[in-house]
Specification:
6-stranded mixed sheet, 183 residues, 3 helices
């Protein structure tokens, strides 16, 4: 009987020590991964995103605000970083729309003349990313460009809202991947 009690006490002690070691190990490990494959540096708590500025000859009047808000929404919904007006641990700075152009892409011959059958709206931006915690992740004047094709039977003003919705979604995805997924 005494041997069984002793064996039971030893098992309880071994179990308690194992549990304690696992708990210490769990709390001492820090992993630098987020959900969806996002890598956010340890210690990063804040991010600031500057308003996009228009540097192209032609841009939809609301495009800088739309693009800025879409990037802010993506960061807010996909990370736990607090959004600041400026001076974050991570910063998107000097955000610029450098090209906004609609040009013919496909030409169709009607016998007497050539006409565009497809037009393409292209938006190009440049952006700087500053990571105060890991300067090797910074990038300067990184260019991103996306386009939207539409039939020449429609005008740019008819398709612009849908085009910008798609283009901005793709641009933000590329910016996000470059900053948080090391692409």
């Amino acid at each position: 009987m005494k041997i069984q009690n002793l064996r039971f006490k030893i098992q309880k002690i071994v179990l308690a020590i194992t549990y304690s070691l696992l708990t210490i190990n769990f709390y001492s490990c820090k992993v630098n991964y987020g959900f969806k494959g996002i890598t956010i540096p340890l210690g990063a708590k804040t991010i600031s995103i500057a308003m996009f500025q228009n540097q192209s000859n032609l841009t939809a009047p609301l495009e800088p605000q739309l693009l800025t808000q879409r990037l802010r929404d993506a960061v807010s919904s996909q990370t736990n970083l607090a959004l600041l007006k400026q001076g974050g641990d991570l910063m998107f700075e000097e955000c610029r729309i450098t090209n906004y152009v609609s040009v013919p892409q496909a030409i169709t011959s009607t016998g007497t003349s050539d006409v565009a059958s497809i037009n393409r709206l292209t938006v190009t931006i440049k952006i700087n990313f500053v990571n105060k915690l890991d300067e090797t992740k910074n990038f300067t004047d990184k260019e991103f460009s996306k386009y939207y094709d539409y039939p020449s039977t429609q005008t740019l003003s008819q398709v612009e809202n849908a085009a910008l919705e798609q283009i901005n979604r793709q641009l933000v995805e590329d910016i996000f991947n470059a900053a948080f997924n090391n692409w």
